[in-house]
Design a protein that fits this description.
heterodimer; A: mainly alpha; 85% helix; elongated; B: alpha/beta; 59% helix
């Protein structure tokens, strides 16, 4: 029974997502709402992502230091930290943070709109609610999450620099050259491509959960809650698939 | 509209900085891999590339100046390696430079090293070819190591036989090492020898003063004195020669200095004029 429900939900989400690709190209384009959502999703999440990124860089450096010192490979520390930050840690941590902040926000917002029948009212007043509410949010999420990840990368690298300077004394320029030496396009591009998928799924799942909230106040909370859980889970699944594809081709 | 413009510039700044970070990362990684900026190509033929891979560094005088762009098999015993290098180092690479493959550290990647040649002054052209020096393969090293290990095996066998016979045999050496009696007799012999030689030197002193041998010893002393005098003379000659040389060199140096000074003066005068 639970299995059947899960499959039903996956099917419904797929139909919901299919509608997005149809609607995104059809006017009217809600540019103003899109920009506002970009602001809310991107700019407003920056402090949270920055703090997380900084701490991840710092912690990762301090944690991997003892192992590398054991092998006498302390000079690999910047390269290793930057590599793991850019390839894995920054995209996934940023996506998870955004799943917590944005997905739940969208779920709760749309859920409460649904419950208070504002969405129905929109439809009556000849505004396409899907176009106005869902397309703008999902698009904003898809485009803003990668940028947030760039910020997380950069700030995480600065955090790593602080972490290294707790024990040693490394010139910042030297630190940067060490990082750039260890990086290749294959580290940067697959990681960037998968963040678009992260963003899309975060927005889509939040919207779906909110849009399909049943009537009743408690369903708003439920929508927000299940949006976070499903989005987080889907991030890990996408990450796994992305790693396998990267591993297969490169 | 008022409210919109308040957040739009923040959004614009956010997006710009974010994209700038990405572009910077792409640029710096690309610069590292020589994708942007002017480059030139060099090819070289190897019998074996020892596991060199596309993207490995190319070094000239220990500096990373490029990367391996392509590795092709030409026939069963020739591999063509195409290198992409920074344009700014081209003037230092002459046509008789050689390429060799080594490894970077014990566990590190392979590195293609370009060594400067000695004679040529012609700068290499784009897509030019340079000679290669075949690197030492690991199995070559292992072969020679195996040979010396085999030799060591033979030697250690013989040492084992030797020490066994020394410990267990009845030969002179074994008895010398093991037998107390033998040791005692040897030390007795030595002390006898000592007293014997003392007596002998006394005898010799006596013989010197004997009239029969006196003439012979006097002759010897005279010869010694002569030789000593000859040595002294030779040494003095050498000293004189060295002093002369030093004086000549000094004169030459001073002349050279004077000439230089004169030239400088002339130049300065020319400048003034």
């Amino acid at each position: 029974m639970i299995l059947k429900n899960t499959f039903t939900e996956i099917g419904e989400t797929t139909i919901f997502a299919k509608k997005f690709f149809k609607e995104v190209f059809i006017p009217p384009y809600e540019t103003k709402e899109f920009l506002k959502q970009c602001y809310v999703i991107g700019y407003k999440s920056l402090p949270l992502v920055a703090i997380t990124g900084f701490i991840m860089g710092l912690v990762l450096t301090l944690q991997s230091r003892p192992t590398l010192v054991k092998f006498g490979a302390e000079s690999w520390l910047p390269g290793m930290v930057a590599l793991s930050l850019i390839r894995e840690i920054a995209p996934v941590i940023t996506a998870l943070i955004c799943a917590g902040k944005i997905s739940s926000g969208i779920g709760a917002e749309l859920g409460s709109m649904k419950v208070t029948e504002q969405i129905d009212a929109m439809e009556v007043s000849a505004v396409n609610p899907y176009n106005y509410l869902v397309v703008t949010r999902v698009l904003a999420c898809t485009l803003m999450i990668p940028i947030l990840v760039f910020f997380a990368d950069a700030i995480g690298i600065i955090g790593g620099y602080v972490g290294i300077n707790i024990h040693g004394d490394v010139n910042f320029y030297r630190y940067l050259t060490q990082i750039i030496q260890s990086l290749e396009f294959l580290d940067l591009f697959p990681a960037t491509i998968k963040t678009f998928f992260f963003g899309f799924f975060i927005g889509m799942i939040g919207c779906f959960k909110g849009f399909n909230a049943s009537n009743g106040t408690e369903s708003v909370g439920q929508a927000a809650n299940s949006a976070v859980v499903t989005a987080s889970l889907s991030i890990f699944i996408i990450d796994m698939v992305a790693v396998q594809i990267t591993d297969l081709f490169f | 509209m008022e409210k919109q413009s308040r957040y739009t510039w923040k959004l614009g700044m956010f997006v710009t900085i974010g994209l700038l970070l990405f572009i910077m990362a792409v640029y710096f990684i690309g610069k590292q891999k020589n994708l942007f900026g002017s480059t030139f190509h060099i090819t070289s033929q190897f019998k074996t590339v020892s596991g060199l891979e596309v993207g490995n560094n190319v070094r000239f005088s220990g500096i990373n100046v490029g990367t391996v762009e392509q590795i092709q098999l030409k026939n069963d015993s020739t591999v063509i390696v195409i290198l992409v290098m920074k344009e700014e180092v081209r003037e230092f690479i002459k046509t008789d430079a050689t390429a060799s493959i080594g490894s970077d550290g014990l566990m590190g990647d392979k590195v293609l090293t370009i060594s400067p040649g000695a004679k040529s002054t012609k700068i290499i052209e784009d897509n030019g070819q340079i000679a290669s020096v075949d690197g030492i393969e690991m199995h070559d090293i292992m072969k020679s190591v195996k040979k010396s290990v085999d030799n060591i095996g033979v030697i250690s066998d013989e040492i084992a036989i030797f020490s066994h016979s020394m410990n267990n045999g009845n030969g002179a050496l074994a008895r010398l090492v093991k037998d107390d009696k033998m040791a005692n007799s040897v030390s007795n012999t030595l002390s006898n020898l000592e007293t014997g030689t003392k007596g002998f030197s006394e005898n010799m002193e006596a013989a010197k003063s004997n009239f029969l041998f006196r003439g012979y010893f006097k002759k010897k002393e005279k010869e010694k004195e002569k030789k000593a005098e000859e040595r002294k003379e030779k040494q003095e000659e050498k000293k004189e020669k060295q002093e002369e040389k030093a004086a000549k060199e000094k004169e030459q140096k001073e002349e050279a200095k004077k000439e230089k000074q004169e030239e400088q003066q002339k130049k300065e005068e020319a400048k003034k004029n």
